[in-house]
Design brief:
This protein is α/β, with parallel strands linked by helices. It folds into three domains: 116 residues, P-loop containing nucleotide triphosphate hydrolases (Rossmann fold, 3-Layer(aba) Sandwich); 75 residues; 47 residues, no CATH class. The chain has ten helices and four strands. Helix 2 links the parallel strand 1 and strand 2. Helix 7 runs parallel beside helix 8. The longest helix has 20 residues. The mean pLDDT is 85.
Length: 268
């Protein structure tokens, strides 16, 4: 499908009241911008906000509408609880681990995948690291039970149950956009939509033709950041209003600080 026709298909559905679920925030923002552009070119000054949002954000919105949001941990709260559990376990065993936040994030994602795929492991399986993860996971689930926290990994099954029981209204049409593959939790939600008569359509990712690409050699990471900042500054001077920069390892503090400093200087 041609690029423009692809996005017209999405905006047509949005105009008709469809729910558009995207793979990430960036795609949602892009689609909303295209929708707004289309409304302006049609001479409109006011229009309804299209229902375009990331799949995860839609799950959290559903929790709010179901009255579950006061018990639901957001990503930052959940990550902090995982960190607390891991740190307490390490202290108890007299061990040190410098990268607790990174370990907590990996443990949280592993737990989510186990829930999504309905998988589990016995205590007898795996080596010491595996046993540690199982301890952390048991402590996590026990803490959620004690405090009545809603585990974010369990949110999709709550939404599916609400759809099947008629406690949550389903839109007439749902478009899933930008997904290379649909994981089991999303597949169960889509199946629940279809079971209540909702039309579900999966639109595969489509790459926009962007012309040519150029590789620019750099002496080191800091030089690479400076080159990027100069490039961004040049585009700003030429009138660009939106610039995208994809950075691998942006979580590294030194790289992040240098990038921010250089980009701000270039824009000024």
């Amino acid at each position: 499908m041609p690029f423009r026709a692809y996005f017209n298909r999405i905006t047509d559905a949005a105009l008709g009241g469809a729910l558009i679920l995207t793979v990430n925030k960036r795609l949602s923002r892009h689609l909303r911008a295209l929708f707004d552009e289309r409304m302006r070119t049609q001479g409109k000054s006011v229009w309804n906000t299209p229902d375009i949002l990331p799949f995860e954000a839609w799950l959290y919105r559903s929790a709010e509408r179901l009255g579950l949001d006061s018990f639901l941990l957001d990503r930052h709260q959940a990550l902090r609880l995982w960190e607390t559990i891991i740190e307490a376990d390490l202290v108890e065993r007299g061990r040190l681990l410098l990268q607790i936040p990174a370990t907590a994030e990996k443990a949280m994602e592993a737990h989510r995948l186990l829930v999504a795929y309905g998988a589990n492991f016995s205590d007898e399986e795996g080596a010491e690291d595996h046993q540690a993860f199982l301890r952390w996971r048991r402590a996590w689930e026990e803490r959620c039970r004690e405090t009545r926290y809603l585990d974010p990994a369990r949110l999709p099954e709550k939404v599916v149950a609400a759809l099947n029981a008629g406690r949550m209204a389903a839109p007439g049409q749902v478009l899933l956009v930008g997904f290379d593959e649909v994981d089991p939790e999303a597949a169960r939600v889509l199946a629940a939509f279809e079971s209540v008569g909702c039309q579900v359509e999966l639109l595969p990712p489509l790459c926009e033709p962007v012309g040519t690409a150029t590789r620019a050699p750099s002496a080191d990471p800091a030089d690479e950041v400076r080159t990027c900042a100069r490039w961004a500054g040049k585009l700003v001077a030429e009138g660009a209003d939106r610039i995208g920069v994809v950075v691998a390892g942006l979580y590294t503090p030194n790289v992040l600080h240098v990038l921010l400093d250089r980009v701000v200087s270039a824009v000024r």
